[in-house]
Design a protein that fits this description.
The complex is a heterodimer of chains A (278) and B (159). By secondary structure, chain A is α/β, with parallel strands linked by helices. Chain A contains 6 helices and 16 strands. Chain A folds into 2 domains: 89 residues, Beta Barrel (Elongation Factor Tu (Ef-tu), domain 3); 129 residues, Rossmann fold (3-Layer(aba) Sandwich). Chain B is an alpha+beta fold and 159 residues long. The longest helix of chain B has 27 residues. The chains are: A alpha/beta (278), B alpha+beta (159). At the A-B interface, β10, β11 and α4 of A face β4, β5 and α4 of B. Bound molecules: flavin-adenine dinucleotide (FAD) and FE2/S2 (inorganic) cluster.
Chain lengths: 278, 159
C-alpha cells in the first residue's frame, strides 16, 4: 500500500468504481482510493471495510497483487454489514483499513508443486495467490487448482476458472455437490478431486480456503495423500474488531487470527483446529 | 482364450485388483465382460435388477437420482479407476439410482450370479471381493455425509 494512515484504526476513504454480481448473494467491489495512489498488498491479506453508519467487517482482498491500481473484494452478504455493502452503488464511498494479516507463502512455495484447494466463496481469498502463481508459473512444478461449490450456478469466477483450465501448464478441477442432468463436469465433494490430481506429495505445498468444515476434510485428505502438515496452509476466520492485534476479539487458542493469521501453517494450529468450542 | 487373457490384463490394470492373488483374479475374469457405453447411454436404471457391477476403465459416469416430476439430479460422478455399483451384493438386488455415461465409457462388468456363486464356494475370493467393496461403500457414505453437511455454505456465528 502507498502509505498506511497515521492511525491504524482510521479508515481511508475509497470510491466504488465497479460492482459485479457474482452469485445470488455474492458481489465484487472494485475500489480506488479517493486520495489517489496505489494499494499494495500480499496474497491472502485482508482489509477492514467500513460501511458508513453500519459497521466494519474483515474481508480478504481478492484482486491481483501485481495490480495496485484497483482494490478488489468479493463478499458474500450474510448479515447487517455485508448486506449493506452489497447495496452500495458505483460512486459511493467505503472506508478501508489495511492490508492486515499473514499472507499465503507463495514465494516460499517456489520450487515445489502447488495445490490450491478452495470451497465456495473461499476461492476469493485464494485468487490473489493464483494470480501470483500464474505470473510466476515457471517457478513452480505442477500447479493444481481444486474447487468445489454447491451447484453449477454457485461456482465463483466461472470464466476465470475456465481460462485457467485452458492453460497447458495448470490443472484445474471443479466439482459440485449436485447438478442437473446437463452438467457434464464432476459431481462429488472437493476432497474427491485429490485422488485424481497429479502432484508429488513429498514436494508439494497446499493452500486451503473455505468454510472450516471443508478445510477440516480438505486437510485430512491432503495429509492422507502424503503432504506434510507443515506444508499445508489454511486461512482462518474469526470475528474481528481492531484487526491489528489490540482488542483480543479474534483470539483463537494462543493466536490472534488478525495478526498471527489469517493464514496459518496447519501444523501450527493442528491442536486447536479440531477443538469445537474455540 | 485370447479374450480371457485380455480381460485378465485389463483387470490387472484396475486399482480394484491391486494385490489380488493371481488365482483369484482368474476366477474373477471368468465372470467378466468388456463393455462400452456411448455418451448419454444408461448403464442401468433405478429399480432394475442389479445383475452386475462395473470397474470403470475410462470415461465418466453420472450417478443420478430421479424423483417424479423433477429433472434427475446428479449426485456423484465416477471416473477411470472407480467402482460402480454394490446393489448386486445385497437383497433386494435392485439398483437404487440411475447410472449414465457422460462421455464414452469403457468398463469391465462382472456377472453377479457367476461371481456370487464363486464367492460362496471360494471364501478367499469372497473375502477379497468384499474387502474391496467396503472402502467403496465407506467412501460413498462419507461423501454423502459431507454433501449433507453443505461444506461450502456460510458458517454459523459463534466462531
Ligand atoms: C480474515 C477474514 C477474511 C474474510 N474474508 C472474507 C471474504 O473475502 N469474503 C466474505 O464474504 N467474507 C469474508 N470474511 C467473513 C466476513 O468478515 C463476515 O461474513 C462478516 O464479518 C459478517 O458480518 P455481517 O455484519 O454482514 O454479518 P453478522 O450480522 O455479523 O452475521 C450474520 C450471520 O452471518 C454469518 N457469519 C458471520 N461471520 C461469518 C464468517 N466469518 N463467516 C461466515 N459466516 C459468517 C453468521 O451465520 C451470522 O449469523 C472474512 C473474515 C475474516 C476474519
Ligand atoms: S481483531 Fe483485535 S486482536 Fe484481532
Amino acid at each position: 500500500m502507498g502509505a498506511l494512515p497515521m492511525d491504524p484504526m482510521q479508515p481511508r476513504p475509497f470510491r466504488i468504481e465497479k460492482v459485479r454480481k457474482e452469485l445470488a448473494d455474492t458481489f465484487t467491489l472494485e475500489l480506488v482510493p479517493e486520495e489517489g495512489g496505489e494499494f499494495r498488498f500480499a496474497a491472502g491479506q485482508f482489509n477492514m471495510l467500513y460501511v458508513m453508519g453500519v459497521g466494519e467487517v474483515p474481508i480478504s482482498i481478492s484482486g491481483d497483487p501485481g495490480d495496485g491500481a484497483r482494490l478488489i473484494h468479493t463478499t458474500r452478504a450474510v448479515g447487517a454489514v455485508t448486506a449493506a455493502m452489497g447495496n452500495l452503488k458505483v460512486g459511493e464511498a467505503l472506508g478501508v483499513r489495511g492490508p492486515y494479516g499473514n499472507p499465503w507463502p507463495v514465494e516460499a512455495a517456489y520450487g515445489s508443486d502447488l495445490v490450491i484447494m478452495a470451497g465456495g466463496v473461499g476461492l476469493a481469498p485464494l485468487r490473489p495467490a493464483i494470480y501470483q502463481a500464474l505470473a510466476n508459473r515457471e517457478r513452480f512444478g505442477k500447479l493444481v487448482i481444486l474447487y468445489g461449490a454447491r451447484s453449477p450456478s454457485e461456482i465463483l469466477y466461472p470464466k476465470e476458472l475456465e481460462k485457467w483450465r485452458g492453460r497447458f501448464d495448470t490443472e484445474v478441477q471443479v466439482t459440485v455437490d449436485r447438478a442437473a442432468e446437463h452438467w457434464s463436469g464432476n459431481v462429488g465433494v472437493v476432497t474427491k478431486l485429490v485422488k485424481r490430481a497429479s502432484f508429488d506429495p513429498l514436494h508439494t505445498v497446499a493452500f486451503v480456503c473455505g468454510p472450516e468444515i471443508m478445510m477440516r476434510y480438505g486437510v485430512q485428505t491432503l495429509t492422507g495423500a502424503g503432504i506434510d502438515p507443515s506444508n499445508i496452509f489454511v486461512s482462518m476466520e474469526r470475528n474481528m474488531k481492531c484487526g491489528v492485534g489490540f482488542c483480543g476479539h479474534c483470539q483463537w487458542g494462543t493466536n490472534f487470527v488478525c495478526k498471527d493469521g489469517p493464514v496459518f501453517p496447519f501444523d501450527q494450529i493442528a491442536d486447536i483446529f479440531s477443538i469445537r468450542e474455540l | 482364450m485370447v479374450q480371457i487373457e485380455n480381460l485378465g490384463r485389463i483387470l490387472e490394470e484396475h486399482p480394484f485388483a491391486q494385490g489380488l492373488d493371481p488365482q483369484l483374479k482368474e476366477l474373477m475374469v471368468g465372470c467378466a465382460a468388456n463393455e462400452r457405453f456411448d455418451a448419454g447411454q444408461y448403464l442401468f436404471r433405478e429399480g432394475q435388477d442389479a445383475k452386475k457391477f462395473y470397474l470403470i476403465r475410462s470415461g465418466s459416469v453420472a450417478v443420478e437420482i430421479y424423483s417424479a416430476g423433477r429433472p434427475p439430479i446428479v449426485v456423484e460422478s465416477l471416473h477411470d479407476g472407480d467402482v460402480l455399483g454394490w446393489s448386486w451384493l445385497m437383497p433386494p438386488n435392485k439398483w437404487t439410482f440411475d447410472a449414465r455415461a457422460v462421455t464414452l465409457t469403457r468398463a469391465l462388468s462382472f456377472d453377479a450370479t457367476c461371481l456370487t456363486r464363486k464367492m460362496e464356494s471360494d471364501h478367499a475370493l469372497g473375502y477379497e471381493v468384499l474387502r474391496r467393496f467396503v472402502p467403496v461403500m465407506a467412501h460413498r457414505l462419507h461423501a454423502a455425509r459431507m454433501q449433507m453437511l453443505d461444506l461450502y455454505g456460510p458458517a454459523k456465528k459463534g466462531k
